[in-house]
Design a protein that fits this description.
Length: about 230
């Protein structure tokens, strides 16, 4: 058998192993596929991302995708970001952020930034701040602040980090959010503002402090936002 023939056979075996019952086998298969990139593998890698139950295997699948030419991966990932399956959307957005091609910004729609599924939204937030064109940063911040107060600590911390990553573009939208009618939104805006100025502050501690500030009324809100 020729070298090319052996590679084709090895590739076919690796693709089959991506569906194995053992997570460790699937992990090794994803590593093998990424170590020997082949355009024929891309569609299967994208599909496996949508259904793979183990995070560490999904991460290896994403790495394998980044090893392939952007011309092969980008169109499929853009399509997958519009999938009806939440995990497919989340992983496609995550992969686009790792691929890093500016054209991936097309997948970061208001729909995914405000997706009802927290994991999809968090992936969209992380991808958005990596892919956003400079001229779109303020508009992105305006959308992101509409999500303040949603979810638990992990979701709220993800959103705060995304807003902080936008730098000064965040300030106008965040200032408005600090005056929102919803006290949960105000508290999240306040803690995000504090973390912008003091990144070493613990999120949980700062959030509880922000909640106390909000509970004390408008005057305390103003003091907490300085």
């Amino acid at each position: 058998m020729t070298v090319t023939g052996r590679r084709k056979t090895d590739g076919a075996r690796a693709l089959e192993a991506l569906r194995d019952e053992s997570a460790s086998v699937r992990l090794r298969a994803a590593l093998a596929v990424g170590s020997a990139p082949d355009p024929r593998f891309v569609a299967e890698l994208v599909e496996r991302c949508a259904v793979e139950p183990e995070f560490f295997v999904r991460d290896m699948l994403t790495w394998a995708l980044t090893r392939h030419p952007v011309a092969d991966t980008l169109p499929l990932l853009l399509d997958e970001a519009r999938s009806e399956r939440a995990q497919a959307r989340s992983q496609a957005l995550h992969s686009l952020s790792k691929v890093g091609d500016p054209r991936g910004w097309r997948a970061v729609t208001r729909g995914v930034l405000t997706d009802a599924d927290d994991e999809v939204a968090r992936s969209a937030w992380r991808a958005s701040v990596l892919l956003v064109p400079e001229e779109e940063e303020a508009a992105l911040a305006a959308v992101l602040v509409t999500q303040l107060g949603r979810g638990g600590h992990a979701t709220q911390l993800s959103l705060s980090r995304a807003l902080i990553a936008l730098g000064d573009a965040t300030a106008p939208a965040l200032d408005l959010a600090k005056r929102a009618a919803d006290p949960v939104v105000r508290a999240h805006a306040l803690v995000t503002e504090r973390l912008r100025h003091d990144p070493d502050t613990g999120f949980a501690f700062a959030l509880e402090e922000a909640k106390r500030t909000v509970a004390l009324g408008p005057a305390a809100d103003g003091a907490g936002g300085t």
